[in-house]
Amino acid sequence: MAEELIVNSNLDKKQQYEILIPQLKALVQGEKDLVANLANTSAALRQTFNWFWVGFYIVKNDELVLGPFQGTIACTRIKYGKGVCGTAWASQKSMFIPNVSEFPGHIACSSLSVAEIVIPIFNSQDEVVAVLDVDSDKFDVLDETDVLYLEKICGLIY
Q: The pTM is what?
């Protein structure tokens, strides 16, 4: 298991992901505890990209319940199909919202968040068991490159 994360903020985003992914794979490989893996993944993503908020919501019964995260306090529970997180869960598709004020039904856990990416995490039966939620407090920070690599990262977790 890796004990230290190597981050180089002088590289472009794609290069940062290419360095981060093997480190995350080593970090979660062999660890069976989902919460531990979510905690370390959220910390590694925040440390690497310095996003406003990055964390996970875990599916429990008919709602998403706040899991490990890095950032300001957050909404504790989100209903199925509600907000960006609940919609990504219901649709089983990644969502990139470059301006959250334009998303109907957006749940503003923080008024400082302006853009959001949500990636569903699937178990071996292709059921959504959690979602990764990334929020930016600046426009034009998140993009499709993030979606592509965050999907790869989420594939390592479960």
A: 0.95
